[in-house]
Design goal:
This protein has a single domain, classed as Alpha-Beta Plaits (2-Layer Sandwich), CATH 3.30.70. The longest helix has 16 residues. It is α+β, with helices and mostly antiparallel strands. A four-stranded antiparallel beta sheet has the order 2-3-1-4. Helix 1 packs antiparallel against helix 3. Helices cover 37% and strands 35% of the residues.
């Protein structure tokens, strides 16, 4: 299992609502992809510009396919990435 946590910080305050909408759509699309076990989006209660993506993928191959797929390449990359600073954190689940 691949666990990936991604912290996104919206660059401009006035883009928060748009990013929230885009991330909601990204999650809906990604959940339907082969190998996606979990794809959740969290919005910080203490900093409106911060979002957390929690992704679980069956294996590295399914994550790689996700990154080559339509949702990532033609939706997430051109629409979300220009609006945010992105910090991916591949993680080991310990509990």
């Amino acid at each position: 299992m691949i666990h990936l946590n991604v912290i996104l910080r919206v660059k401009e305050e006035n883009d928060v609502r748009r990013v929230r909408e885009l991330l909601t759509e990204t999650a809906c699309r990604s959940r339907d992809e082969p190998g996606c076990e979990r794809f959740e989006i969290y919005h910080s209660q203490t900093d409106a510009r911060v979002f957390l993506l929690v992704e679980w993928w069956q294996d590295q191959g399914t994550l790689d396919e996700h990154r080559k797929g339509v949702t990532f390449t033609t939706f997430y990359t051109p629409n979300v990435l220009p609006l945010v600073e992105r910090q991916p954190h591949p993680s080991d689940r310990i509990a």
